[in-house]
Amino acid sequence: MASNPYFSLAVLFFAALGFGLAPLGLAWLWAKAFSPPKPNAVKNAIYECGLESRGDAWMQFHSAYYLYAIIFLIFDVESVFLLPFAVAFTGLSAEACAAMLVFVLLLVEGLAWAWAKGVLTWA
Amino acid sequence: MDEGLKIELGKQGVFVTTIQERYNWGRRNSVWPMQFGLACCAIEMIATTMARYDLARFGGEVFRPSPRQADLMIISGTVTKKMAPQVVRLYNQMAEPKYVIAMGACAISGGPFKQGYNVLKGIDRYIPVDVHIPGCPPRPEALIQAFMTLQKKIDGQHLTGEDRPRHLNSEAQGEFPVPVFGEHDLEPAANPGVWPVPVVIQTGNKEEVNKPQQ
Q1: Interface contact flag, A38 B170, Cβ < 8 Å
Q2: Among B160, B170, B175, whose Cβ lies nearest the Cβ of A36?
Q3: How many CB atoms within 10 Å of residue B209?
Q4: pTM for this predicted structure
Q5: B5-35 as b/e, with b when 16 or more CB fall inside 10 Å?
Q6: Do the domain assignments include residue A92?
Q7: Burial (Cβ within 10 Å: 0-12, 13-18, ≥19) of residue A38
Q8: Full domain range(s) for residue A104
Q9: For residue A44, what is the DSSP state?
Q10: Who among B159, B170, B175 is closest to A40 (CB)?
């Protein structure tokens, strides 16, 4: 058995296991012998900020917020593509420039739609 | 074990100790306070942890943002009656062994706001306080002094026997009732298991009055 090339590995494996488990076992024994657990409802409460938790975490947002999401998308996507477009502008061919303008036009349409719907007017 | 014999043995190069001593040594030097400030005393508490005063020298620098990981609650400042239930609840949620330092005039007695309608007249009405520090606010040195006093207290706690601390005693009180913000005042006004209502003796008519302080 000792001639097996993996013997030393097995010994090290069990030593490592003991190294991890022995402190846990000792702590468990210590708690058993000396430190009695005293759980109660307040102590075991889930929330840790001092306040009691109440209500449901699954709250719903008003669906009207989708308009803000769309407008954010228009400006966000536009800026992401406009920056490389502006950097590479002098080296672009006419077709690439036209394609980019079509793209910007699509986004401007979205903005015009939002404007017509009165979303840009803050109530 | 006899202290003189221990010193004598130490001179001969023989060092002896007890489990209790090691246990208390470990706990004393790794008191983790809760990251929790209530009022202006909290600024002094923060100063105590910073480089100039350096609470880390005593093993108390690891401020924990969760009560589950903290050993020490430093009540640093005025406890309003609105805040008191939260303080008591957080104290309940700390794991044993837990200690409390009441820092400053407000935390120990209500301080300059004692006559006010909405300030608790000492947090020791609801939770057991180990060290009181006077001062408005106490200087960082005073907090360090309190910390060292607490370390001495931890050092002197016995592992077994009748006088063993609460966390080692299965019969000792484990829950401290959280007061409710009632119509006029906190209900109850104090925890009688922690804070016995003081007996006021009026010498004028030689009459003893058991008057609960509001």
Answers
A1: yes
A2: B170
A3: 9
A4: 0.73
A5: ebeeeeeeeeeeeeebeebbeebbeebebbb
A6: yes
A7: middle
A8: 63-117
A9: T
A10: B175
For B66-119, how does the pLDDT look when each residue is reduced to its tens digit (9 = 90+)? 999 999 999 999 999 999 999 999 999 998 889 999 999 999 998 999 898 899
**Which ipTM was obtained for this model?**
0.73
Chain B residues with CB under 8 Å of A50 CB are: 85-87, 89-90
Alpha carbon B205 to chain centroid, angstroms: 38
Cα–Cα dist B85/A45, whole Å: 14
- Please give the tally of structural domains in chain B: 1
- CB contact (8 A) between residue B90 and residue A50: yes
Compare CB distances from A35 to B86, B89, B96 and report the shortest one's residue.
Answer: B96
**Record: contact A38-B174, CB cut-off 8 A:** yes
CATH code of B87's domain: 3.40.50.12280
> What is the total count of domains within chain A?
1
Structural domain harbouring B198: 3-209
